[in-house]
Specification:
mainly beta, twelve-stranded antiparallel β-sheet, eight-stranded parallel β-sheet, 11 helices, globular
Length: about 950
């Protein structure tokens, strides 16, 4: 005997996309037809299984007075009901498609509402629209079951006019966390159930707009645009600025300004039918695949892009318009020109903003089945005909919703879903429905169904081979343009090597750029940790802080990686011969000339600006360059190093940044730095109390350890080779190439022993001889500290000679020491932010000041951070330090060991000592958290080295 649940839940495991929903159509934000937002506070009940409760809650009159309340849009697990789960690609339930666990958190939602006064349900019809529900929903209105649906990041509409009444309406929605649809939504992100996008009631007067398709092409030869608006309901299209007034379906050709991401020209129009007027924002542009290149309006484009998940640290994927706008403005201000909507269509309002402000968009379908890789893609839904209707439904709901956005230039089938017949069916449908855009899918390695050869995380050498046409592959693939749909994995400190990628992109026409992974750290605001990541909610399976890999922190504060990327992709190159007095300006835009920019020069002496002015640069067309004469430099006094700095800034306010915003810059050396002058004078004096004095310094006679410089106590000065490993040092466990973070620990570089061999006070120097080496291994570093004084200052010369067989590079090479008190920091060197050997493009040479606390970069998982590059001198804690040669400078209120041990920001507690690192060398960063490691030229190999520092006590 078996018992059947009284609650029918078979739809949860049905592979079909659902039932009852209307065919997809174009989304538009407003019209003159009435609408009613049902966002706000909803009654809520959470059940542990899909069938724990019957359907009686949907009946009018049901008493939900004892229920909780949740905010819609929102996720119930971020509102105190259950907990979020993070996995990169593993399904957090047994893989047995389409079956899901019995333990299936299910949220019943109730919304009570009245119709606005004057809304007559009998006049025409009414639609109920859900813009996003994860992962499966069943809907009732006034007790009537109107349908169920899957496809979390896609819109679903239901005809409900006959069910409405003027007052006392009851909308009931049952949402299941797990469903058959979950197998199609295995994206690298938090699993967050709930009604997380808008819910809206739309009045549909008789004769109102149904679906419409705006075709707005541009002929780059004639400068004419051709407009045709196809509509399911006959009407007229007017564009007053262009003098257009035509019937729907009728083409009209007029002179226009084209839409591009650089020049996002939109024309306001109206689609008017017998029952509705819909505002249109029309951008004329043409996208083609021609001569093996993606061309827009006749020109190839170079994507300087980013992958964008939707994220807010408190609301999850429930984003409001201002948060979306903040993303777009930040992207524009940092020279980003393209977005891949990884890995689902975004809230449609985001695409409105891309149209308005100007961003190329690869619009990606809500599809990923990555977890099937664990079983060699066996039973993958995209190669199972039973699932094809669901795949086609997802493709259609994306294309139909977003087809009227000029910013969308490429459709993407999804991400990391293997290969199969279902993907081919999607590509064929999209090509048939919309021939005006290209189709992308990275998993189609032979480009059978797609128009672009796409890869993720290919290393620099492979990308260059692809650019040279030496990569092989099918004949079709060899004829296609190439993009890196993901690269530069921005997890923790990094990514490194971006400038090297950009140089390769700009060297080969076939390479049309790439998209950094990714935009934002998905940290969840949490009082325990500051921001929580995978594992912090007791998940059975999780992937830790792999969800924190963005160019901005969860609060949208730019990371050093975003600042670096802005410099690397700047649309104007400023180079030249500072000593010769000329600067070469290159317009790297694809379309825009330089008329929107002003150019400014400034002249620095010893890092300080002494003169500045405007620089006349012609309004170069895209791709053009010019040699521009700089003014006569100020008369030099003294021997300080000098340089020009030239900046390109906005000449007027724009919608995305104010006048004066820096778009690009370059620095041109004139005269180089001279090494600090120093002549040794008095020698060391050994006293009877166990102290050696040398000028302003005191040392321990037995160990040779420095105790103080003038009135400033100094502790623990010694050679340092360790850094708190970055996410990129540690790499990803699945990678087969060398991961130096784990090798450094294996070889004990985090626990180096310092053997004292000799303390030699003689002549004009105090010499301390040591050997620095890890337990259990025979290799080490023979290290000699040689101290001298000129009477008022103290000089340290460190000589390092490798001993034994060093098979790994060093994390760093320099000295570290502690100061008892330090807050304000001044330095002459690179700034204002951190930089490392392969992340230093954005480092501006100048004089900077900060505090010790402000010098820290608050990565969500603490790790090496905060180094300033090319430092000539630094002052903190009563000391001035000059380097010979320039050095890397770091200061923090905890030790490297404490930083290394911390899992969250809140694990770091400031101590009473400020620990200072002065490094002769740093190992690069790379992007091996999910990509290539550090390029050879940025690796810090053990070799003979000598470097010096001059210390002066200052008031």
């Amino acid at each position: 005997m078996s018992f059947r649940s009284a609650t029918a839940v078979g739809y949860v495991e049905d592979v079909s996309p659902g039932s009852g929903a209307l065919p997809p159509r174009a989304w538009y934000p407003v019209s003159d037809a009435e609408s009613l937002s049902l966002n706000g506070s909803w009654r809520f009940r959470l059940s542990p299984t899909a069938d724990a409760e019957d359907d009686s809650f949907a009946e009018p009159g049901y008493d939900a007075g004892g229920w909780a309340e949740v905010t819609v849009p929102g996720h119930w697990v971020l509102q105190g009901h259950g907990a979020p789960i993070y996995t990169n690609h593993l399904y957090p339930f047994p893989v047995d498609p389409p079956r899901v666990p019995t333990e299936n958190p299910t949220g019943d939602h109730l919304r009570f509402f009245d119709l606005p006064e004057g809304w007559d349900p009998a006049d025409g019809g009414t639609l109920l629209r859900f813009d996003g529900v994860e992962s499966c929903a069943r809907v009732w209105l006034n007790g009537t079951d109107i349908g169920e649906f899957k496809g979390s990041r896609l819109p679903h509409e239901f005809a409900v006019g006959q069910l409405l009444k003027p007052a006392g309406n009851v909308l009931a929605v049952r949402v299941h966390q797990w469903s058959a649809g979950s197998y199609l939504e295995d994206q690298d992100q938090w699993w967050l159930p709930g009604i997380f996008r808008d819910v809206t009631l739309l009045h549909r007067p008789a004769g109102s707009v149904l679906d419409f398709f705006v075709h707005a092409s541009y002929d780059h030869v004639t400068g004419a645009g051709t407009l045709r608006v196809d509509s399911d309901v006959d009407g007229r299209v007017t564009v007053p600025e262009l003098g257009v007034d035509v019937a729907t379906g009728e083409p009209v050709t007029v002179p226009v300004q084209a839409w591009t991401a650089e020049t996002p020209r939109l024309y306001d129009g109206v689609l008017a039918t017998g029952g509705e007027r819909v505002p249109l924002r029309i951008g004329f542009r043409t996208v083609v695949l021609e001569d093996g290149l993606i061309r827009v309006n006749g020109r190839p484009v170079l994507f300087k892009g980013v992958n964008r998940h939707e994220w807010h640290p408190e609301q999850g994927r429930a984003l409001d318009l201002e948060t979306m706008r903040a993303d777009v403005l930040l992207m524009k201000r940092h020279n980003i020109n393209a977005v891949r909507t990884s890995h689902y269509p975004p809230h449609p309002a985001f695409l409105d903003l891309c149209d308005e402000y100007g961003l190329w968009v690869i619009d990606e379908c809500d599809l990923e089945t990555h977890g099937f890789t664990e079983q060699a893609w066996r039973d993958n839904p995209v190669d199972d005909d039973r699932w094809t209707p669901a795949l086609l439904d997802r493709a259609a709901r994306m294309v139909e919703r977003d087809k009227n956005h000029p910013s969308v230039v490429v459709w993407s089938l999804g991400n990391e879903a293997g290969t199969g017949r279902g993907l081919t069916a999607m590509a064929e449908w999209i090509h048939g429905r919309d021939a005006s855009r290209l189709v992308h899918y990275e998993g189609d390695i032979d480009c059978r169904d797609t128009d672009v050869y796409s890869r993720m995380y290919a290393d620099h050498a492979e990308v260059e081979r692809i650019g040279q046409g030496l990569d092989g592959g099918t004949h079709k693939r060899r004829q296609l343009p190439f993009i890196l749909c993901e690269y530069g994995h921005a997890m923790g400190n990094g990514p490194g090597g971006l400038a090297d990628y950009q140089r390769i992109f700009e060297s080969y026409d076939r390479l049309q750029g790439g998209f950094i992974w990714e935009w934002i750290d998905h940290g969840i605001e949490d009082e325990r940790y500051g921001y929580a990541y995978g594992g912090d909610f007791g998940e059975e399976l999780h992937d830790g802080n792999f969800v924190c890999d963005g160019l901005v922190f969860p609060d949208r504060r730019p990371s050093p990686g975003l600042v670096e990327y802005k410099k690397v992709i700047e649309p104007v190159r400023i180079e030249g011969d500072g000593a010769g007095g000329t600067v070469r300006v290159v317009n790297r835009h694809d379309f825009a000339d330089l008329s929107a920019l002003d150019f400014e020069w400034s002249y620095q002496v010893g890092g300080e600006t002494v003169e500045s002015g405007a620089l006349a640069v012609p309004a170069l067309a895209a791709g053009e360059s010019a040699e521009v004469k700089l003014p006569e430099p100020p008369v030099a006094t003294g021997s300080a190093e000098t340089q020009w700095t030239v900046r390109a800034v906005l000449a007027a306010d724009t919608g995305w940044a104010p006048r004066g915003h820096v778009v690009a810059w370059g620095q041109l050396p004139v005269s180089g730095r001279q090494s600090p002058s120093f002549a040794a004078a008095a020698g060391p004096v050994v006293s009877g109390d166990g102290t050696i004095t040398l000028g302003p310094a005191a040392f321990d006679a037995r160990s040779g350890a420095l105790r103080s410089i003038g009135p400033v106590p100094v502790t623990g000065l010694r050679l340092d080779v360790w850094r708190a490993t970055t996410d990129n040092d540690d790499g990803a466990a699945w990678q087969s190439d060398i991961r130096y973070g784990s090798l450094w620990r294996k070889f004990g570089l985090h626990r180096m022993r310092h053997r004292l061999d000799a303390v030699e006070p003689s002549g004009d120097a105090l010499t301390v001889r040591t050997r620095v080496a890890p337990a259990a291994w025979e290799f080490g570093l023979v290290t000699v500290y040689r101290w001298t004084t000129d009477g008022g200052r103290l000089r340290l010369t460190v000589s390092v000679t490798p001993d034994g067989d060093w098979t790994v590079p060093l994390p760093r090479l320099g000295i570290r020491f502690g100061l008892p008190a330090a807050d304000r920091v001044r330095w002459f060197g690179g700034g204002p932010g951190e930089a490392y050997p392969d992340t230093r493009a954005a480092s501006v040479l100048g004089r900077w000041q900060s505090t010790v606390d402000e010098m820290q970069t608050p990565y969500l998982r603490p790790q090496e951070n905060g180094a300033r590059a090319d430092v000539r001198w630094a002052e903190l804690g009563g000391l001035r330090i000059e380097g010979d040669p320039e050095f890397w400078f770091t200061a923090r209120r905890w030790t490297t060991e404490q930083l290394d041990a911390a899992a969250h920001r809140t694990d770091l507690t400031p101590g009473g000592t400020v620990w200072v690192n002065l490094d002769h060398g740093q190992h690069g960063i790379g992007s091996q958290s999910c990509g290539p490691g550090v390029l050879p030229q940025y690796q810090l190999h053990a070799g003979p080295a000598e470097f010096s520092f001059v210390f002066t006590a200052v008031g």
